[in-house]
Amino acid sequence: MPFRCAAQGVIRLTAAGMVIRLNGRRDYSRAMENEEPPPQPRRRGFRTGRLEAFSDGVFAIAITLLVLDIAVAGDAGQHLLRSIGALWPAYLAYVASFSTIGAVWLGHNAITEYLEHADAAFVRLNLLLLLVVSFLPFPTRLFADYIRQDSPERVAVTFYGIILLLATLLLMVLWRYAVRAHLVRPDAADEEIQLLTERLTPGVAGYLVLIVAGLFLPIIAVIGYLAIALYYIIPSRHLYAGFITRLLGKMGG
């Protein structure tokens, strides 16, 4: 235990009972280095557990809110069956949005599966993605309400397509940033990384084409949005094999 004496400088009592006289800062630092290990550096980055749990919660809430916009008028009465059938635009919008959120969640799940850790920029990009996903029920409702009103229909479908494009674009940006920032697990195969990159890319071009098509053929554009979501949902054989191999490795470890 070190203590200071006015005339003798710094004196240190070691565990063996020996007294060491230290007359200067240099000697004191040297003694400290010889007897005490340097402090361990703080762990850099964020663990992915809380990020995944929070993201899954937002996805679950957003996908649940979609069905709340489907409702039959209270005065349907004896024409209930006809009223249910008349809601087909709401059904189409619901299926397209549900499939899109499901596809984004699957892509997000694949990304986090390959992460070793996250950094501050990745967490903020993830928040932007969740911002767009949680906003999706609103353009879904607009599409269902204005689908057969000519000019408003085109505006609603175009706005709907832009939000879908943003969600897909942010998902792709999230993955590409993870790869460039070396956040991916070192044991991830290059082939798996390349396959996931290719898997996330085609939807962006497809949405751009369909947004333009929606100005002339709104219903066809929404069906196209659904087709893109189904493309993401249908599993890739190579990626699926990689996930199974990684899962078995974790169970074995």
Low-confidence stretches: 1-22, 24-29
What portion of the residues fall into strands of 2 or more residues? Answer: 5-15%
- State the separation between the terminal residues, measured CA to CA: 45 Å
Taking the sheet with the most strands, its summary is:
3 strands, antiparallel
As a percent range, the share of helical residues equals 55-70%
Arithmetic mean pLDDT: 80
Order of helices and strands: EEEHHHHHHHHHHH
By helix and strand content, what is the structural category? mainly alpha
Shape: elongated
Strands of the largest sheet, in order across it? 1-2-3
Radius of gyration: 29 Å
- Please tell me the total number of domains: 2
**Count of helices?**
11
Number of strands: 3
Describe the protein's architecture and organization:
By secondary structure, the chain is mostly helical. The chain has two domains: 2-35; 48-252, no CATH class. Helix content is 68%, strand content 5%. The protein is built from eleven helices and three strands. β1 (2-5) and β2 form a beta hairpin. α2 (48-65) packs parallel to α5 (120-135) and α6 (137-146) packs antiparallel against α7 (151-180).
Summarize the structure.
The chain is mainly alpha-helical and 253 residues long. Helix content is 68%, strand content 5%. It has helices at 25-35, 48-65, 80-85, 88-114, 120-135, 137-146, 151-180, 190-200, 202-213, 218-233, 237-252; strands at 2-5, 9-13, 19-22.
Please give a handful of descriptors for the protein shown:
single chain; 253 residues; mainly alpha; 2 domains; three-stranded antiparallel β-sheet; 11 helices; 3 strands; 68% helix; 5% strand; disordered N terminus
